[in-house]
Amino acid sequence: MIEYFKEIVEGAYTLAVGMGITFVRMFRRRVTLDYPYKSLTMTARYRGHIELKRDETTGQPKCVVCMACQKACPSGCIKQLDGQKPEGAPRKVLTAYMLDFTTCSLCGLCVESCKFDALAFSHDYNLTSMRKEDYQTMDLLKRVGGAK
Amino acid sequence: MTEGMLMNLVRLLLYLVGMIGFAAFNAAYLTLLERKQASWMQLRRGPTEVGPWGLLQPVADGVKLMSKQLLLPRDVDVPLFLLGPIMVVVPPILCLVTIPFSETVVARNYNLGLLMIFAFGAVSTFALMLAGLASANKFSSIAAARIVAQNIAYEIPLLVIVLSLVMTTHTFNLHTIVAQQAGGFWHWNLLKLGANPLMPVAFLIYFICLLAESNRAPFDMVEAESELVAGVFTEYSGMGFGLFFIAEYVNIVVGCCLATILFLGGWHCPFGLLPGLHWFLIKMYALCVMVVWVRWSFPRTQFYGLLNLSWKYLIPLALANLLLTAVMLKLF
Ligand code: SF4
Ligand code: SF4
């Protein structure tokens, strides 16, 4: 008999504790961010699609068209990688860099294989498109602003 | 037609429109309250897009539900299937007829108003069961069977509690019950410890039964999304589905109105100031907030846990309460 009443009192007490917890939380600060209006800056190690890096001094893409990244990619995502050597220039200049993002696994082998620090993961997490083709041939050179 | 009859007719029509409007408004905005309150408890923000602070969200929901197709699955019992949502939604709206919102705002002041509300409440659950059976879907059928068991289990303590309350008020007339509680919160039935020292417990039992009768979590065996898809609502689409939701919320409103009348002094102010409609609404909506609060605090119990709660705890307590009331009535 004592057990029975103990059970009732204990049950009621735990329920009250539960409701207390939710009550306090009702007045806590909200953690939701109004996403389309505000967004967080992505963490440093986030892996978005790969992007070309620029040389700060010249403004040109750092890539020297050594093809190492294309060879390293296990999925053959880097479809077209062309460059040419203008008269008198010390190195090749990139003219085309096409990525197939639909098969990229973001493994990072291309970034690691680049000895010229010309590739990096972007922090863009807002990619959208209604067409598959937009990601089958992503023009990375255009995304970085073209060759100047 | 005499002048008096015309006045009566106009009064009737106005109350009819008012009741349906009140029911629809509450159903719409209690969903918003529910979503907002739930999101606050979970540190979210809830609907914010439609209108300022999401205030027009219920309108958007309503338009969405109405613009959807009403599907009739192949094997359903068509008349019952279509009748189900209507029979679920009409009784709670009818119950509003006899609720005295204030001294003067009451559509029909029946002598047996309290009984009428429970009678229609039973129709509502019966209709839910029919809708479940008519759906020709195993999830709906399981839910229908559960509804019957659940409602039998919870109607008993509910009625026993109300019975012990009626023993102290000596009337079924809701208007009179409120009138008896005039003048300060210490006159409310909730604190009428002279008539029955267990009154606050009785209120708690009533409240738990109210949750169970209106099929709210943690007692929402009717829907039970995680195990029964959507229970009796599985086969319903569009506004057929919407009507069940309206009924659920109107049921809550009726239950909270009744709790306000029976235990919390209806339209009377706690300190004897300015009695009126506003006090009734404040108390009623405070109870609605409680109902939502409970729902988002506790997970659904298992079915036998639900029946255990009723048969092992609520019914014995309610009976003890009844006995005590009778003894107190005889002694004092
Ligand atoms: S991240 Fe991996 S899969 Fe993607 S392009 Fe670079 S090497 Fe290829
Ligand atoms: S490895 Fe670096 S430098 Fe070589 S082609 Fe790729 S991006 Fe250009």
Question: Would you write up a description of this structure?
Answer:
The complex is a heterodimer of chains A (148) and B (332). By secondary structure, chain A is α+β, with helices and mostly antiparallel strands. Chain A has a domain at 50-139: 2-Layer Sandwich (Alpha-Beta Plaits). Chain A has helices at 2-26, 68-72, 109-113, 133-136, 140-143; strands spanning 50-52, 78-84, 93-99, 119-121, 138-139. In chain A, a hairpin with an 8-residue loop joins strand 2 (78-84) and strand 3. The longest helix of chain A has 25 residues, at 2-26. The model of chain A has no long low-confidence stretch (mean pLDDT 85). Chain B has one domain. Chain B has 11 helices and no strands. In chain B, helix 1 packs parallel to helix 10 (277-297) and helix 9 crosses helix 10. The longest helix of chain B is centred in the first third of the chain and has 39 residues, at 3-41. The model of chain B has no long low-confidence stretch (mean pLDDT 84). Classes of the chains: A alpha+beta (148), B mainly alpha (332). Chain A binds chain B through residues 8, 15, 18-19, 21-23, 25-32, 34, and chain B through 37, 39-45, 48, 293-294, 296-298, 313. The structure holds iron/sulfur cluster (2 copies). The site of one iron/sulfur cluster has 13 residues of chain A, from helix 3. Residues 63-69, 81, 113-114, 116, 118-119 of chain A line the site of one iron/sulfur cluster (SF4).
In terms of quaternary structure, what is this? heterodimer
Distance, first to last CA of chain A:
88 Å
Greatest contact between two chains: A-B, 16 and 15 residues
SS elements, strand count of chain B: 0
Could you tell me the strand content of chain B as a percent range? under 5%
Distance between the termini of chain B: 53 Å
3D shape of chain B: globular
Helices and strands of chain A, in order, run as HEHEEHEHEH
* DSSP helical segment count of chain B: 11
Present as ligands are:
iron/sulfur cluster
